Every structure is written in C-alpha cells, then in structure tokens.
Recover the amino acids of this structure.
C-alpha cells in the first residue's frame, strides 16, 4: 500500500514532461519542424482555457489529437499555453491549448511519446479519435501498416495494445 506523496512526484513529472513539449514547440516556432519530425498532441477539449470552434468542440467533446507537421501556421508560445493555426476539412482555425490541457505528446519519427496525467490525478485514457488530417499531409508510416491476420495476443499491462483503424475508415 502506497503512502501519501508529500513531495508531489506526479506533479513534478508532469511539469518535466510539459517542459519537453514546450522545448519541442520552441524549436518548431523558431525554425519550423525539420526533417521527419512531426508532433501528435492530444489535449482535453474540456480543460479551462482551451479555445476551439464550437463545431470542433461538438465533434470532439472530450479529447482531440492535432498533428503539427507541414500544414500549420502562426505557432505562438506563451508561458501557460500555445496557439497554432490549423486547417480542419479545409476550414482554417486557430486553436489555443493550455499546457495543462495536454494529455499525450508523440513524435513518431523519433519513437518518443508520453502521457501527462495533469492535476495530480489519474487522467482518463483519451478516446482514439483524432482531428481530420489535412489532405496534403502524408500518411504516417505506422498508419499505413496492414493489420496482421493473426489473432491478437492478450493485452499486457506493460505494453500498449495496437489497434488498426483501417477497417473503420470510409473508402
């Protein structure tokens, strides 16, 4: 049985991980995202300070994953948030995301990714829904992989379960 954490380790870990996100975004804001780098940022659309159009908030009432790769503009960093211009189904929109709303960050080009719990409480696992990709973005290599015909093994608590969404996509 764990005892009360008087040091606040989870808050320290979250702050460090937010620092990693902020540093990656700082690189992108200064010189653009270089090479094969691209960022998947999942955030809680219900969090205070999130600015998102009513249409997108209705479509993604809990979580949304945005992709920063080629088609973004006006990336601005502030002490407590970032804002960025994105296109959703060819409709431009500025999204404002407090760092405290971020729940996951991934850069698949470097096989790096982590989950941020936020507020010292266990964060709910974001639902597997993502913002529509701009048409000009290439499909990430891991999304193009074909699902195996084998029966999947029992999920392990140590390893994430990979699920292919190809069979649910409209063709």
């Amino acid at each position: 049985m764990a005892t009360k954490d008087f040091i606040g380790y989870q808050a320290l870990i979250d702050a460090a991980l937010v620092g990693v996100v902020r540093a990656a975004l700082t690189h992108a804001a200064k010189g653009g995202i270089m090479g094969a780098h691209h960022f998947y940022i999942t955030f809680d659309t219900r969090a205070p300070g999130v600015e998102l159009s009513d249409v997108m908030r209705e479509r993604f009432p809990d979580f949304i994953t945005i992709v920063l790769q080629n088609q973004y503009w006006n990336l601005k960093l502030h002490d407590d948030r970032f804002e960025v211009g994105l296109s959703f189904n060819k409709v431009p929109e500025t999204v404002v995301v407090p760092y405290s709303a971020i729940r996951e960050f991934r850069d698949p080009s470097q096989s790096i990714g982590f989950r941020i719990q936020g507020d010292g409480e266990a964060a709910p696992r974001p639902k597997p829904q993502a913002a529509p990709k701009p048409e000009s973005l290439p499909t990430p290599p891991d999304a193009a992989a074909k699902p195996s015909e084998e029966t999947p093994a029992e999920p392990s608590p140590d390893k994430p379960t990979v699920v292919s969404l190809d069979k649910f996509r409209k063709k």
About this structure: The CA atoms of residues 62 and 76 lie 24 Å apart.
